[in-house]
Amino acid sequence: MALSLLLAACAVGPDYRRPDIATPTQWQAPLPHDGQLDQLGNWWAQFQDPVLDELQRAAQADSPSLDKASAAIRLARANLRSAGAAELPTVKGTTSSTQSGTKQGNGAMPVTTTTGRLDASWELDLFGGTRRSVESGSALRDAREADWHDARISLAAEVATTYVGYRACQLKLSAYEDTLRSQRATAELTQLSVKAGFTAPADGSLADAGAASASASAIAQAAECEVSIKSLVALSGLDESRVRSLLGSRPATLPQPATRTVDSVPAQLLTQRPDLVSAERAVASASAQIGVAEAARYPSLTLNGSISLSASSGTSSLPWSFGPTLTIPVFNGGALAAKVEAARANYDSALATYKSSVRTAVKEVEQALVRLDGAVRREDDARRSAEGYRAYVTASEANWRAGGTSLLNLETARRNAITAELNLISLQQARVEYWIALYKAMGGGWQADAPSKASTEQAPPPRI
């Protein structure tokens, strides 16, 4: 017992320290301005779009991906409780009652024998193997909780991106339908002119071809909008009729995020992104497993005791035993040393994964910033282009009706106008999606707490 108390303060294997990962001192890409970005947890609320809010609430409340992440948390907590139980003694009790006798002519009475036994054992954690196992389990629990938050952020980003895609699809469909109505009207006027002999039949064919092409484009765009609705149904878990009702309750406009600034530095991503916290906790768990493997190479001491009661035909006995058992790994062919080496290899792998994840996180933020900056700077030019082409089409239609230009020139002007309009919508859609990507890359406003010290009985994280 004195030896166990002496060794209780030490545990074999490395004492974990958070890896010092090199990150840039500042962002290299242009930063947006006017406001703050990193304090918004439910970042989608800034769009002030009640339809998006409703879809997000439904998705967060009923998501298979979040259910799977919650189950992983429960499993990690159960494994942690199991590891902690090894630090305590185990006690097992058994009891039995039997009757026995010999068949004789005068009918001898049977003999009843009753026994009870209580066995206890306690393996002293001399070299900290159990403590390292608990340390590993605690780190894995923290990792699974971070994974849950990462799943929540990813789900929110996917819902928002799909919703923005649907609204953009509606705007594109509206542009195609406007063009279709105009081309059908032109085709009707052209056919009347052909019948009257004022226009060549070739112009009639050109007008019909233009209207047919516009109709095909509108049908294809409408199909894409339907695909987006199906995606929103799957993400939100709502009935399709409810989703259609929500989407139809507002006009077809793109949600606009509030302009925000990025006032954090790359190093802060380590506590702003739950996936990085999960990767770091995996490194901590792998480090503790080295201690578990190391402890298995040392002797183990187990205290065993038992007491039993046996009663039969008015007589009873009370045997008992108590004593230590020392187990020494004398020869195992290098298996225990190999397990230590495997644990160290797992640690190196987890550390490499963590480093790679940090670099990827920095890259994702930098790329989102570059794309967002490019989209913002291009939007004014795209808007002027679309407005100019629309004005040119209006003038070309009036000129064509007056006989001042050919139908071919009018159709060319229309194609240029619809292309410019679609480019503007796509650019506006991309700008909003880049904002969403930036929020996701910055961790969605989530902030890591210190490694969890809460009871392992704590419920899974609430769905916000």
Automatic annotation (TrEMBL):
Report the membrane topology from the UniProt record.
Lipid-anchor
Q: Supply the InterPro entries for this chain.
A: MdtP/NodT-like, OMP_efflux
Keywords on this record?
Lipoprotein, Membrane, Palmitate, Transmembrane, Transmembrane beta strand
Q: Which Gene3D superfamilies match?
A: Outer membrane efflux proteins (OEP)
Note one Pfam family from the annotation: OEP
Q: What are the start and end residues of every segment in region (Disordered)?
A: 87-112
Cellular compartments annotated: Cell membrane
Q: Which family does it belong to?
A: Belongs to the outer membrane factor (OMF) (TC 1.B.17) family.
What is the protein name for this chain?
Efflux transporter outer membrane subunit
